[in-house]
């Protein structure tokens, strides 16, 4: 990031801070002109945003907003990060101004921050080394087991199918482990998390850690918000939430959206990881010149193809690789979308942190199998409220989150596993029907 230094317009040490009202701050939410508020202090991030480690889009999505809870959710060492904010400080909120702009529930914000502090006091942000060592160990064991199956039994259909299935599970669990590392929820030092994520994402999966973080942090900052969450900005291939009505009213019909719940099975689960992620990931590394990530990814492909080339030859190993990616892709789509697609999807509502996360997420009933199979993403509510929390502590903070929701009348939705999967298709069909109705009757 580089050392922060004095900048034109920043508040001078020892000088009284200028005060601003929200009406003034709201005017600074344009490209190249971004202000935000953290802990009642006003920062001009217009030029510095390009240097933000999480990317300019992530921090820019909070333009002209109170970003206090997002700031605390994403950063481990707050005092260290505040040093980089100091040169960007231009003032503070006027004493008579509320901490949050708009008709937000101030008591909910206060209660959530108290809950966050309670979780810290309970040491729920401390990771278990044994838990994550076991996760890495069983991933590596599956990689070795798959190779041994082909080595000992030969490249027949049955051993190959079984090996592909085991590798797909290993790849799925690697997604979960790199996800934990990306959120800095394993090691106490951010750098250790970043280095370990490069290994898991690059050597074990063949993808770029920077690419994943660029997408995923935006998703966490503004879940289910068009043009801010890449996971739901999927039009015109699929229409979700409010886009269904918009496309219908404008008479847009690039695809038969009333049948999107059917063609989803053809181009969604089978191809996301194999095609979309592979192309987008490679383009990102080349355009953004992430050469270290490119070398890590190359090491995965070298290991994979050199390991299985002697058994299958070039055509066979390519087919084997495609089989693993397709199986993995099914897991990725169903597991990651069962908590989000059926929820509210639309344009920016400028809600507080807790309300925005709860509106976009739901949980799936826990069990030993579901927790392992989904990488604890069945606790999606807790994960979104506390993205840095190690996943093995979600069940401990869940009762506190339920109490907060009950107190403020917020929905804390928990579904059976199969219901959550079926709801993905139901929500796609509902959005398609809404589009058709608006298309025919507007």
UniProtKB/TrEMBL annotation:
Keyword Ribosomal protein included in the entry's annotation: no
Domain of life where this protein originates: Eukaryota
Keyword set includes Membrane: yes
Start and end residues of each Cytochrome b5 heme-binding domain: 17-94
Any one GO molecular function term: oxidoreductase activity
Biological source species: Macaca mulatta (Rhesus macaque)
The name this protein goes by in its record: Fatty acid desaturase 3
Cellular-component GO terms for this entry: endoplasmic reticulum membrane
Keywords, ordered alphabetically: Fatty acid biosynthesis, Fatty acid metabolism, Lipid biosynthesis, Lipid metabolism, Membrane, Transmembrane, Transmembrane helix
């Amino acid at each position: 990031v580089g050392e922060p230094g004095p900048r034109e317009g920043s508040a001078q040490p020892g000088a009284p801070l200028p005060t601003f009202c929200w009406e003034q701050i709201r005017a600074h939410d344009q490209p190249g002109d971004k202000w935000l508020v953290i802990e009642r202090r006003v920062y001009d991030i217009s030029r510095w945003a390009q240097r933000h480690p999480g990317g300019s889009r992530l921090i820019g999505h909070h333009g002209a907003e109170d970003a206090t809870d997002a700031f605390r959710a994403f950063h481990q060492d707050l005092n260290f990060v505040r040093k980089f904010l100091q040169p960007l400080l231009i003032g503070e909120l006027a004493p008579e101004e509320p901490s949050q702009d708009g008709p937000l529930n101030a008591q909910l914000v206060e209660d959530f921050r108290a809950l966050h502090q309670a979780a810290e006091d309970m040491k729920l942000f401390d990771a278990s080394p044994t838990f994550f060592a076991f996760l890495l160990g069983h991933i590596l064991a599956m990689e070795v087991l798959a190779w041994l199956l082909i080595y000992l039994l030969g490249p027949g259909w049955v051993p190959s199918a079984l090996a592909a299935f085991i590798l797909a599970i290993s790849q799925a669990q690697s997604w979960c482990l790199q996800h934990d590392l990306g959120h800095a929820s394993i090691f106490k030092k951010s750098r250790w998390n970043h280095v370990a994520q490069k290994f898991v994402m690059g050597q074990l999966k063949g993808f770029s850690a920077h690419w994943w973080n660029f997408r995923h942090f935006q998703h966490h900052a503004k879940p289910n918000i068009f043009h801010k969450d890449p996971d739901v900005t999927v039009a015109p291939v699929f229409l979700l939430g409010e886009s269904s009505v918009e496309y219908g009213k404008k008479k847009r019909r690039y695809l038969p959206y009333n049948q999107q719940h059917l063609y989803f099975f053809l181009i969604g689960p089978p191809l996301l990881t194999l095609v979309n992620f592979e192309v987008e990931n490679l383009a990102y590394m080349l355009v953004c010149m992430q050469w270290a990530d490119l070398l890590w990814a190359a090491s995965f492909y070298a290991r994979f193809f050199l390991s299985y080339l002697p058994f299958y030859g070039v055509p066979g190993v390519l087919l084997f690789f495609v089989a693993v990616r397709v199986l993995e892709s099914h897991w990725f789509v169903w597991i990651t979308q069962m908590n989000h697609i059926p929820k509210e999807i639309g344009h920016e509502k400028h809600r507080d942190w807790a309300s925005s996360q709860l509106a976009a997420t739901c949980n799936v009933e826990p069990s030993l199998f579901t927790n392992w199979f989904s990488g604890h993403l069945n606790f999606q509510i807790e994960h979104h409220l506390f993205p840095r929390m190690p996943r093995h502590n979600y069940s401990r903070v869940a009762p506190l989150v339920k109490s907060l929701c009950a107190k403020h009348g917020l929905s804390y939705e928990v579904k059976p596993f199969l219901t959550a999967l079926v709801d993905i298709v139901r929500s796609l069909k509902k959005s398609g029907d809404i589009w058709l109705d608006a298309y025919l009757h507007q």
